[in-house]
Design a protein that fits this description.
The chain has 14 helices and 28 strands. α6 packs parallel to α9. A hairpin with a 2-residue loop joins β1 and β2 (19-27). By secondary structure, the chain is α+β, with helices and mostly antiparallel strands.
């Protein structure tokens, strides 16, 4: 019985002629198959030869894109010298492909493939720039990417301030959160760790003291650090108070969480410290329930004055929770849904106005030009897109695809859009590099600075999302796979951006399915999630799950935000 050898059993050093190289060595007939996401400016580079006295073997390279026909891109005789090739993969750029390296003929000939690799022509070296003097990270709670026109040109939501920042900054088109609700998602943003590592994934779990936050890295580098938080889950009770010179959580302190108040307090603090380097993290919550924008912003999207339905602004949290599930106690009609979405959209536009006022204040202080601004979100919100409302219950794109924009002219490329999927877990490593600060040595995220500068990452361009430990998501190019238990389904997000047609027969798209399954398996099986793609895995110290003390006060504050506990 023929048993296919394991990949590492094929790897050895082979001398052909006077040159010895590491290579994959197998006897004919053998085909080595790779599943690859082909970037721009890519070439397939390899050498092929034999150390056998037998002759007559032929080598062939065949490439097949998902949905396309297989194409022979090179054929050559296998001789007793290295035959080195660099094959242009431009026709397959942007596609997920299967690459077959076949050797046949010359029965039993030992054929060596020397380090087959996908190589990329480097971009022009960027001009030297001074690091950011200051950093502001703004996380807008519950803001799905598709509500914003730079992501969805058909969106009705008006955000002129955000749109202007995009025009003069770098936007990541396919940014994904690590989870579909606040605590684990924000924990990943601030630590650069996956939820499976930081373990702050349940209602009562807290970030361990041993988890290093980006605030601690900036604090250690001499920055003044401050946080202004409007979500009760991002609180001292859950371990988020590490590394801050100034820490405040408005909802925990029973104060206003309106954007104008959060931005005002942040601006007051910056004004007191604007002559020193600072790192500020702001988490606003206006698009989160309860939806209650000023009347002028509600009227932008629902000018009716005679609406008498069940949607009341301060009750939207309870209403959405009651509208969930297979047997909801609240059912919205079309009139209710019109009012509900208008309230949410009004909150986004109101927040945009207050963001503009905050940025004007930074300009007046004279710090805007030297301040790196990052805007993102922790998750989105569903409005009956897939039969439910709110968040925390699914891994559809309306909940896990979020905005991600970096802005500081002269440091961040202007008007650039990055198409490859990325994780918001990478935010902390990116701002540290742009500020020339070392830290987060244990982070599993990576800096996105190379992406901004046109470099192609040296690892697969994928983004992963969890839903507790139940569902796993992997995104590559147009393709998305969701694994629940042992069952997998896919979506083609280019043809089906609303995810109406789930693909359960994965043989319909065998190349994309195999690519996603291979890499999701490698990711889930890795001991080092920060280098999950590497064949050699190092053991990492796992953080221990810690539980927060939940009293009646904090439970009531979380219920006010629509969290059932």
């Amino acid at each position: 019985t023929w048993v296919e050898p394991l990949h590492d059993a094929l790897v050895t050093r082979v001398q052909i002629g006077e040159t010895e190289r590491p290579a994959l060595l197998a006897r004919t007939p053998t085909t080595l198959t790779y599943y690859v996401d082909v970037p721009e400016r890519a070439h397939l580079v390899f050498g092929v030869g034999t150390d056998s006295t037998a002759t007559g073997a032929t080598a062939r390279v065949r490439v097949q894109a998902e949905g396309g026909q297989a194409q022979d891109v090179w054929t050559g005789e296998v001789g007793r010298r290295w035959n080195d090739q660099s094959l242009d993969l431009a026709p397959f750029a942007g596609e997920i492909v299967r690459i077959d390296l076949s050797a046949e003929g010359g029965e039993g000939t030992r054929v060596a493939w020397s380090v087959p690799s996908v190589m990329v022509d480097p971009p022009e070296a960027p001009a030297a720039t001074e690091p950011a003097q200051n950093v502001v990270v703004l996380l807008i709670d519950t803001l799905r990417a598709s509500k914003l026109r730079p992501y969805n040109p058909q969106s009705r939501v008006r955000t002129p301030i955000f749109d202007g920042l995009v025009d003069h900054g770098t936007l990541f088109e396919r940014a994904h959160s690590q989870e579909n609700w606040t605590k684990p998602s924000v924990a990943s943003v601030l630590t650069g760790l996956t939820p499976s590592t930081h373990r702050a994934i349940t209602t009562e779990a807290r970030l361990p003291e041993s988890a290093e936050l980006v605030s601690e890295a900036f604090d250690g580098a001499g920055f003044h650090t401050a946080s202004f938080l409007a979500n009760g889950y991002v609180s001292d009770r859950f371990g988020f108070d590490q590394g801050w010179d100034h820490y405040t959580n408005m909802i925990r302190e029973g104060r206003s969480t309106e954007a104008e108040d959060v931005f005002r307090e942040a601006g007051d603090w910056i004004e007191q410290h604007h002559d020193q380097r600072f790192f500020v993290y702001i988490q606003t919550i206006d698009p989160h329930v309860p939806y209650d924008p000023p009347a002028e912003f509600l009227q932008m999207y629902d000018p009716r004055t005679d609406y008498a339905g069940q949607v009341q602004p301060r009750r939207t949290g309870d209403l959405l929770e009651s509208a969930k599930g297979s047997n909801p106690s609240v059912v919205f009609d079309e009139s209710d849904l019109t009012r509900l979405t208008a309230l949410h959209d009004g909150e986004i536009s109101y927040h945009d106005r207050e963001l503009g006022r905050f940025l004007e204040r930074l300009q007046t202080m004279g710090v805007a030009e030297n301040t790196l601004l990052v805007i993102t979100s922790d998750h989105g919100e569903e409005f009956r897109d897939h039969g439910s409302y709110g968040h925390g219950h699914s891994v559809y794109q309306e909940l896990i695809q979020v905005p991600l924009v970096f802005h500081r002219p002269g440091l961040v490329p202007e008007g650039r859009r990055i198409p490859q999927p990325v994780s918001t877990m990478n935010v902390s490593q990116t701002v540290l590099e742009l500020a020339d600060v070392r830290g987060l040595r244990a982070a599993e995220g990576r800096s996105l600075v190379p992406d901004m500068r046109g470099q192609i990452p040296s690892h697969p361009m994928l983004a992963f999302t969890n839903m507790l430990d139940d569902k796993r998501v992997v995104r590559a190019r147009r393709w998305k796979m969701v694994l629940s238990g042992i069952n997998a389904k896919m979506f083609d997000l280019e043809r089906d951006p609303q995810e109406r047609n789930e693909i359960t027969d994965l043989t319909q798209h065998p190349i994309a399915a195999r690519f996603l399954r291979i890499h999701l398996g490698q990711y889930l099986g890795s001991r080092d999630r920060g280098h999950w793609w590497q064949a050699t895995q190092q053991e990492r110290q796992q953080l221990q799950t810690e539980q927060a003390e939940m009293d009646d006060t904090i439970r009531a504050q979380l219920r006010a935000l629509g969290y059932a506990n």
